[in-house]
Specification:
This protein has 291 residues and is an alpha+beta fold. The protein is 61% helix and 20% strand. A three-stranded antiparallel beta sheet has the order 3-2-5. A three-stranded antiparallel beta sheet has the order 6-7-8. A hairpin with a 2-residue loop joins strand 2 and strand 3.
Length: 291
């Protein structure tokens, strides 16, 4: 009798262990368990730790609540300014409602991936090339809103969306390079012109100062000669002041004017001498007639 009782207790204990092994479920800290009883959602979402279900009646599905990093395949499209580009991005999302993620959508990962690709194509068609290259923060926010709107019903929230790279055709890259080169050349010319303008103002002020003090021009000339001579060059360049050239230009004209004045003076002297001689001859002739 005792042996039969021990055997029954052992059988019950073994059966209990088998039941416990079949009913035990362990949910990790980053997971939640959704239990279906005979195909219907049963009870609340199971928390992390040790959980029991009814074997052969309940079925638990574990849902990961960690942030999922999903790359969006590169999408080719035409921007609003008719430029063909290839854009790839990455989306970060997580499950906030495990029951909705299991019941409302067949595969929430695949659904989010397809929605992200569709939204990325839509963003490409609505944006211009300059926005894709320089205004990505605004595009990321718009893309996040487009994906997050339908994902709310799936128990998924979009953490953030980032555009990774924008690939351009080679012809467009060369055109942009030429545009950037032309813009830099324009800025360089403007800077040079501004420098010339400032230098001309300073030179004009220096010229006015030297005009008030002519000796300053000679001192500046001597400084220039000394600076050139200090280089020990075989050729010495000596600048000639413009005033000296003007003086040399006036020299021949003054000489010709002086020669003309001397010629007129000599002619006048000769005329006076001839008049005196004619007067003396008349006096002699008058005396001879009187005698």
């Amino acid at each position: 009798m005792v042996e039969e009782l021990i055997g029954a207790v052992a059988a019950v204990g073994a059966g209990g262990l088998v039941y416990l092994a079949a009913a035990a479920r362990v949910v990790k800290q980053y997971e939640r368990g959704v239990v279906f009883r005979l195909g219907r959602l049963h009870g609340e979402v199971r928390r992390p730790g040790f959980n029991l279900v009814v074997p052969a009646v309940d079925r638990m599905r574990k849902v990961n609540l960690q942030i999922v990093t999903m790359p969006i395949p590169a999408q080719e499209g035409i921007t609003r300014d008719n430029v063909t580009v290839r854009v790839d991005a990455v989306v970060y999302f997580k499950v906030v409602d495990p029951a909705a993620a299991v019941v409302n959508v067949e595969d929430y990962r695949f659904a989010v991936s397809q929605m992200a690709q569709t939204s990325l194509r839509s963003i490409i068609g609505k944006s211009e090339l300059d926005d894709l290259l320089s205004n990505r923060e605004k595009l990321n926010q718009g893309l996040e809103l487009m994906i997050d709107s339908p994902a709310v019903e799936w128990g998924v929230t979009i953490d953030r969306v980032e555009i990774k790279d924008v690939s351009l055709p080679d012809t467009m890259k060369r055109s942009m390079a030429r545009q950037a080169e032309a813009d830099r050349e324009r800025r360089a010319r403007l800077i040079n012109a501004d420098a010339e303008y400032q230098a001309s103002k300073k030179l004009a002020q220096a010229a006015h100062q030297m005009a008030d003090t002519p000796s300053a021009l000679q001192l500046r000339l001597l400084q220039t000669v000394m600076a050139v001579a200090a280089e020990k060059n075989s050729t010495l360049v000596l600048p000639i002041p413009v005033e000296l050239l003007r003086f040399l230009e006036r020299g021949p004209e003054a000489g010709r004017q002086a020669s003309a004045e001397h010629a007129v003076a000599d002619s006048a002297e000769h005329a006076v001498a001839d008049a005196a001689q004619a007067k003396e001859a008349l006096e002699e002739l008058r005396h001879a007639v009187e005698q």
